[in-house]
Design goal:
Elements: H1 9-20, H2 23-26, H3 28-65, H4 71-79, H5 82-110, H6 117-123, H7 139-154, H8 158-188, E1 210-215, E2 221-226, H9 227-246, H10 251-254, H11 267-291, H12 316-323, H13 329-360, H14 370-380, H15 388-397, H16 409-447, H17 451-454, H18 458-461, H19 478-495, H20 507-514
Protein name: Amino acid permease/ SLC12A domain-containing protein
Keywords: Membrane, Transmembrane, Transmembrane helix
Main location: membrane
C-alpha cells in the first residue's frame, strides 16, 4: 500500500491555516505587547510574517514544479548537497516533534487557569474568582489524554483526516474573526476608557524605549536598556517571540504527495499564497485590536523570563475581557485555547510522520547496519494510505510532553519552543539557499546554456521558462525575496538568544537557544 492522493485544495488550505492558529497567537501575543508595546508588537508580527512568507514562496515554487515526498529536505539534497538535505530532513522531523510536544505542554498550562482575586478586584470584575478546578489535577493526566487523542486522529485515513481538519480550521477562523470583532466592540462601548487608542497614548505609548533584558527572581530589573538601544532591544526581542507564531507555514508542502488536485487546481500555489496572506492579516488584526484594550504594563502581562510561556490568565485575549468586565468570555476563550493547541498538535504529528516516512524512502539517510535498514523498511510501509509506523514512531517521541509533571513546565515549554524556532530557521534558511541555486539553474536551462549537459531541445527547454503559461507557480522578484528570507533567518539564528549571553549566563537557556545549530 502507498500514500494515497485524497486531499483536496480546501483540505490543504485549512490544514495549513489550522496549524498556524495555536499557542503562538493566544499566549505569545501578550508577551509581545508587554515587551514592545501594541504598535511594536504589530510591527514585529508584520516583519516576521513577511520573512516566513518569503521563505514559503521559495518552497512553494519548487514544490509546485516537483511535488515529491519530503519536499522540505529534497531540494536541499538536490541543489546543495546530499548530506545537507539529510540534515534538513532530520531537523524538520525533530522540530515538528518538539512543536507537538510544546502544544501538549501548553494544554497543561491552560488547565491551570486562575486569576488572583486582588487582580480581579483591581480591574472591577464582577466576580471574585475566575479559576478552574482543573488547576489542581496532575498535569500528567492531561498529557496522557491529549497524547492519545492526537494519535487517534492521525490514524484516520487521509480523506477523513482532511475533512476533520477542514472543520477544525473553519472553527478557528470563526474564532479569530470573533476575537477581532469582540475587541473592536468592547473598545467602542467606552465602559472603562473614553479614548479609543488609550493604550497607545501617554503614559503607555505605542512602542517602548525601555527594555528589561534580565530580571531578578523577585521581578525587579537587573539589566535595563533605555533610549534608542532600549527600543531596538525591545523590538528585536519581540520578533524572537513572534517568530514562533509564524513557523509552520510549510506544512502545506508535506501534503504534496497526498494532493488529489495538485496539477489541476494549482493546489500548492494557492495554498502558499492564501496561507501567508490569511495568517499575517489575522495575526496583525488580532494583536492590533487586543492591544487597544490591554496596556503593555498590565500585571498579568509582565514576563521577564528568557524562554518562558505562561497560561491563559496571562493571555492578552483573556485579559481584555477581564479589564472590560465581560462575564463568561474568559472561561470560553481558555477552553477554545485548549482546542486550538490540541488541533495544532494533531497537525504537528501529521507533518512529523510524513517527514519521517519520506526519510524512510531514502536508503542513504540510514546507517548500513541491518537493524537500521529493517527499521527504515518498516517506517516506509503504509496501511490504508497512512504511514502507520512513522506515525507511531513520531508519536512515541512526543511522550517528552510528560516532562510537564515538573514544576518548571513553563520554562521547559519556552525552551522547547526556542529549539523548534532555531531548527525551523535552519530549515528555511537552507531551503532559501537551495532556491537561489535552483533559480540560477532553471534560468540557465531556459536560456539554452545547459542544452548539451541536459540534452534539451527547444521544445523541452520551454518547460524551464518561468514566464511560460505552463509553469505551475512563480512570483515576481522571487530571488530577491529568497535573499531577504535568507538574511532574516541568518540574523535570527545568530541573535535569537542574545539575552542568554548577558551575565550571569544561564547555561540551560543558552543551550536551548543554540543547540540546533
Amino acid at each position: 500500500d502507498r500514500i494515497r492522493q485524497e486531499l483536496r485544495e480546501k483540505h490543504v488550505n485549512m490544514i495549513g491555516f489550522s496549524t498556524m492558529l495555536g499557542i503562538g497567537l493566544v499566549l505569545s501575543s501578550g508577551k509581545a505587547i508587554f515587551m514592545a508595546g501594541p504598535g511594536g508588537a504589530v510591527a514585529a508580527y508584520i516583519v516576521t510574517g513577511t520573512i516566513m512568507a518569503s521563505a514559503l514562496a521559495c518552497l512553494g515554487e519548487m514544490t509546485a514544479l516537483f511535488p515529491v515526498r519530503g519536499a522540505i529536505f529534497e531540494f536541499s539534497r538536490r541543489f546543495i548537497d546530499k548530506s545537507v538535505g539529510f540534515a534538513v530532513g532530520w531537523l524538520s522531523w525533530f522540530s515538528w516533534i518538539i512543536i507537538c510536544t510544546a502544544e501538549i505542554l501548553a494544554i497543561t498550562q491552560l488547565f491551570r487557569f486562575e486569576f488572583k482575586p486582588s487582580y480581579l478586584e483591581e480591574q472591577g470584575y464582577p466576580h471574585e474568582r475566575v479559576e478552574w478546578e482543573t488547576r489542581k489535577t496532575n498535569p500528567a493526566v492531561w498529557v496522557g489524554i491529549f497524547w492519545l487523542l492526537i494519535l487517534l486522529f492521525n490514524l484516520l485515513p487521509v480523506r477523513q483526516y482532511g475533512r476533520v481538519e477542514y472543520f477544525f480550521g473553519v472553527l478557528k477562523m470563526i474564532f479569530a474573526v470573533g476575537v477581532i470583532v469582540f475587541n473592536t466592540i468592547i473598545n467602542a462601548r467606552e465602559l472603562v476608557h473614553k479614548a479609543r487608542f488609550w493604550t497607545w497614548e501617554y503614559p503607555y505609548r505605542s512602542s517602548k524605549s525601555k527594555f528589561v533584558a534580565i530580571a531578578n527572581p523577585d521581578g525587579s530589573p537587573r539589566v535595563t536598556y533605555t533610549g534608542s538601544l532600549g527600543g531596538l532591544a525591545a523590538f528585536w526581542s519581540t520578533m524572537t517571540v513572534t517568530i514562533f507564531s509564524m513557523i509552520g507555514m510549510d506544512i502545506v508542502l508535506y501534503t504534496a504527495p497526498e494532493n488529489k488536485d495538485l496539477r489541476r487546481d494549482e493546489n500548492i500555489k494557492m495554498a502558499t499564497r492564501k496561507l501567508s496572506l490569511r495568517v499575517i492579516l489575522l495575526y496583525v488584526l488580532v494583536v492590533f485590536t487586543v492591544g487597544l484594550n490591554v496596556p503593555s504594563d498590565d500585571d498579568n502581562l509582565r514576563d521577564f523570563s528568557l524562554l518562558g510561556v505562561s497560561g491563559g490568565q496571562n493571555s492578552a485575549l483573556i485579559i481584555a475581557s477581564i479589564r472590560e468586565r465581560v462575564k463568561a468570555i474568559p472561561h470560553l476563550f481558555n477552553a477554545f485555547f485548549i482546542f486550538m493547541a490540541f488541533s495544532c498538535g494533531i497537525n504537528c504529528l501529521y507533518a512529523s510522520s510524513r517527514a519521517l516516512h519520506a526519510l524512510a524512502s531514502i536508503k542513504d539517510v540510514w546507517p548500513d547496519a541491518e537493524i537500521f535498514q529493517r527499521m527504515r523498511a518498516r517506517l516506509e510501509r503504509t496501511r490504508m494510505g497512512v504511514p502507520m509506523n512513522a506515525v507511531l514512531a513520531s508519536w512515541t517521541i512526543v511522550s517528552l510532553s510528560f516532562l510537564s509533571v515538573r514544576s518548571s513546565q513553563a520554562q521547559i515549554l519556552g525552551r522547547m519552543a526556542s529549539v523548534a524556532v532555531v531548527s525551523n530557521l535552519l530549515v528555511y534558511g537552507l531551503n532559501c539557499v537551495a532556491y537561489l541555486i535552483f533559480y540560477r539553474q532553471i534560468n540557465a536551462a531556459a536560456r539554452g546554456d545547459l542544452d548539451d549537459e541536459l540534452n534539451l531541445t527547444p521544445e523541452t527547454r520551454s518547460h524551464y521558462d518561468r514566464d511560460a503559461p505552463r509553469y505551475p507557480y512563480h512570483t515576481h522578484f522571487q530571488w530577491l525575496r529568497a535573499v531577504f528570507a535568507l538574511v532574516g533567518c541568518f540574523v535570527f539564528l545568530l541573535f535569537h538568544g542574545w539575552r542568554t549571553l548577558i551575565p550571569p549566563i544561564s547555561a540551560d537557556d543558552f543551550v536551548a537557544s543554540y543547540i540546533a545549530i
